[in-house]
Design goal:
Helices cover 54% and strands 0% of the residues. It has 36 helices and no strands. The longest helix has 36 residues.
């Protein structure tokens, strides 16, 4: 891959792709069934078509559909579901092009939401889940009869598709929206936020469906649609990355912290990708022709020769250890364009001069010099604590807690302190941890009732189960996963009832299955990253609780296993058939699918958006799990992630490479001097692209804070802090209770207030135990009748 990939990272893909990805290619026959069912409804009402109806007639028809959705007969009720599904699909039978279908879909979704269809479909989904049949306990002799297929989940798929299409449509704003549509969008957001206060919110219901699916209690759940709906609901309620950055700025202002005038996503979009480091496999393909020329004047022409892919001038041809000076030049990351006609077999113009005259370089391209670093360096608070050691050395005493006084210290120390103070950055997590230690004396303090807070409260009792279930599905959907008898079946909502009989049908099903797996990875990585980001912004201990359970569920080796493949082929391979994507498959003339239809879909510089999006999300999740955690960083070393990550640098995309380089940076100090010496190009890329932390000697391995014997103690201490936080803030639920108690911290016996009013205590009815009531007469005789008490002595003052 010789050029950068054309990719723009965002919360999600464009609207058309997000809508089409909820459907599999095997669902295509169902579109026609929905159309025929709705046309029968119009015919029964003497209507010609939906588009010709007035607003009043359209509302009257929808009210008739609502009444049909409330009938007791299941088959009749499902026909009404088909009618609603056809409406949210944009009445494609009456559309001549895709843009018209998209417009009608948006108009119908707003109309259906206004008339209450969204809540009705939610209730039908709850009812369908509760009545969903479970798989047979015994397997018959004919195993094929027990393999779940697409028709088994028809009702659930239809209901979830309606909800997903409405959520995806209503959450996106358009400049052409009317005032009524803007108001309906606000009402939709408010309704979803208020739904978190319900006894079982829709998000929790979907999470429970994921757990139910992974526990083998139900094989007929359309899990891809469930995960897509869950991801889009979280994206709608919590907000995307732009909204997250604005919330972070507002929160820092509220805490009195200075703002860092940087938006990471915007900065990464302006960065260029690095040239991948040369691997040993690439060196085996070096041709022996050509003669290596010396470097008479310097490195510029030498680099031009390298950029023309002339392997005969490879600096590693005769040595396993690349020269440091040459590697520094190559770390400009492809900023020097190649020149035609300059190669190792020709005499360079610099060689002909023999140093006697200035060569003519007018025909050579200019080297683009990178000015400055893309990130503002940061310094932590404990980086300034070296002042006490300096005071002890030069003055003879220390000032504990004083990090500003520089009297009597040498000028280099004062200059160092000014630089550190200039780049000092205090994360919100430090203030949150400090506040937790302060309010431990006030255990009845409750957190703010913001949206992430309410979501965390609702998820808290079962977060470990949710994380395990998501990672199980991610493992089953990974391209490197091997089929096992005890693994979960994620293909039940893509496999047709009958197996394909032709080669083209088999090829089509194979592409559909691969596409199906990729969408699983996309939705799971998106929702896990979204939860981690918002929980960390709300409170760092909420983030730590979720991240710990991800680590306990082996998320780190799972992500590394995902990247232990030909990642370049994964992000560039497009498992899709454009003519079968919705709505192209139902609008216009239908073309016949042949074997030639699958050729020419992969372009080197245009990646598959969802695969590159998923890969970046998994890298970001891995970075969040290991950041400032030495024990988890050692897991990267133990699982030998360095060669896996180094191979991933072949993907020429700036954001992807940034997070790969971050993961390499955190473990560099543990990889040894030999690794650093033989990977100087990677080290240069880290220095150039990753943010600098002052006093962070990542390149030398002299970190005295990373002692191996502290790793287990660090994790145990963090877990104790998190459990104390949950117990204080959420009562029995947070302390690992059954989840049936209240979210009020007063339910914890240690924090229950004590009644001090004597009159109120005397009025309370006390339930005495049975053993006491049986021995009450004996107690009276022993403690009252036969006991002599000197009451005067009690009243006397000593």
């Amino acid at each position: 891959m010789d050029c950068d990939l054309e990719f723009v990272y965002d919360d999600s893909d464009i609207y058309e792709n997000e809508i089409s990805e909820q459907y599999t290619y095997t669902e295509e026959p169902e579109f026609q069934l929905n159309k025929e069912s709705f046309e029968k409804l119009l015919k029964s009402k003497d209507y010609e078509n939906w588009s010709s109806l007035s607003n009043e007639n359209q509302r009257a028809l929808i009210m008739h559909i609502i009444q049909t959705l409330d009938v007791s007969d299941k088959s009749e009720r499902f026909e009404a579901v088909r009618w609603v599904l056809y409406l949210v699909q944009g009445v494609f039978g009456e559309c001549s092009n895709i843009e018209e279908q998209k417009t009608k879909c948006r108009t119908n979704c707003f109309l259906l939401y206004k008339l209450g269809i969204f809540n009705i479909v939610q209730e039908l989904l709850m009812m369908e889940i509760n009545s969903s049949p479970t798989p047979p306990t015994a397997v018959s002799a004919d195993k094929k009869s027990n393999i779940p297929s697409l028709p088994d989940s028809l009702e659930l798929r239809s209901l979830i598709t309606i909800l997903y299409t409405m959520v995806e449509t209503l959450r996106r704003d358009q400049h052409s929206d009317s005032d009524e549509h803007v108001k309906l969008r606000k009402d939709f957001f408010t309704e979803l936020e208020q739904g978190l206060n319900d006894k079982e919110p829709l998000i929790i219901t979907l999470f429970n469906m994921v757990c139910k699916f992974c526990s083998h209690t139900s094989f007929i759940l359309p899990m891809k649609k469930v995960l897509l709906l869950l991801w889009k609901l979280l994206l709608t309620i919590l907000g995307g990355f732009k909204n997250l950055h604005k919330k972070m700025e507002t929160r820092r202002q509220d805490m009195g912290l200075p703002l860092l005038q940087e938006n990471p996503i915007e900065i990464v979009r302006q960065m260029s990708a690095s040239a991948p480091p040369t691997s040993a496999a690439d060196l085996l393909d070096i041709p022996q022709g050509g003669k290596r020329k010396g470097r008479k004047v310097g490195s510029i022409l030498y680099e031009l020769e390298i950029d023309t892919n002339n392997d005969s001038t490879n600096p590693q041809e005769k040595s396993d250890e690349p020269p440091l000076e040459e590697e520094k030049v190559t770390s400009i990351d492809g900023e020097i364009p190649s020149v035609d006609g300059v190669n190792g077999g020709e005499e360079s113009p610099l060689d002909k001069t023999n140093g006697q005259q200035t060569p003519d370089l007018s025909g050579l391209p200019r080297v683009k010099v990178i000015s400055g670093l893309p990130w503002t360096p940061k310094a932590r608070k404990n980086d300034v604590e070296f002042l006490n050691q300096v005071r002890q050395k030069f003055i003879g005493f220390t000032l504990p807690g004083d990090l500003t006084t520089v009297a009597g210290l040498p000028e280099p120390t004062q200059d160092s302190l000014k630089i550190l103070q200039k780049h000092a950055y205090t994360p919100m997590s430090e203030l949150q941890v400090a506040r937790e230690s302060e309010i431990s004396k006030c255990p009845l303090t409750i957190g703010k009732t913001e949206i992430p807070e309410r979501l965390y409260q609702a998820m808290l009792p079962h977060i470990p189960q949710y994380m395990i279930a998501l990672l199980k599905i991610l493992l089953a959907a990974a391209p490197t996963a091997k089929a096992k008898t005890d693994s979960i079946n994620i293909l039940s909502d893509v496999l047709p009832q009958g197996m394909p009989s032709t080669a083209v049908a088999s090829l089509k099903l194979g592409i559909d299955v691969n596409r199906h797996r990729e969408i699983f990875v996309k939705s799971i990585s998106g929702l896990i990253l979204l939860l981690l980001k918002h929980f960390k912004l709300n409170h760092v201990y909420q983030f730590e609780y979720m991240s710990q359970h991800l680590v306990f569920a082996n998320c780190i080796p799972l992500v590394l296993k995902f990247f232990n493949q030909n990642i370049v082929a994964y992000v560039t391979t497009k498992n899709m058939i454009p003519s079968l994507e919705f709505p192209a498959c139902v609008i216009g003339e239908k073309t016949e699918i042949t074997a030639e239809s699958f050729d020419g879909m992969d372009a080197n510089n245009i990646p598959c958006w969802r695969n590159l999006f998923s890969s970046i999300n998994l890298l970001r999740i891995l970075n969040k799990l290991v950041k400032w955690k030495h024990s988890r960083t050692m897991l990267l070393v133990v699982f030998k992630s360095a060669p896996i990550l180094k191979r991933a640098l072949k993907v020429r995309q700036a954001m992807f490479q940034l997070y790969v380089l971050k993961l390499l940076k955190v473990q560099t100090k543990y990889l040894g001097r030999a690794w650093r010496k033989s990977n100087m190009k990677t080290m240069s890329a880290i220095y150039q692209k990753v943010r600098h932390r002052l006093h962070d000697d990542w390149a030398f391995g002299n970190d005295v804070d990373a002692q191996p014997w502290d790793f287990q103690q660090e994790e145990c201490a963090l877990r104790a802090h998190v459990e104390r936080f949950n117990a204080r803030r959420y009562g029995k639920i947070g302390s690992g209770g059954s989840g049936g108690g209240s979210l009020n911290p007063s339910t914890n016996d240690d924090y229950t207030p004590v009644e001090n009013n004597l009159q109120n205590l005397l009025k309370e009815e006390v339930e005495l135990p049975i053993e006491f009531r049986k021995s009450y007469d004996t107690w009276l005789e022993r403690e009252v009748y036969f006991s002599n008490t000197d009451w005067d002595q009690l009243l006397s003052i000593p």
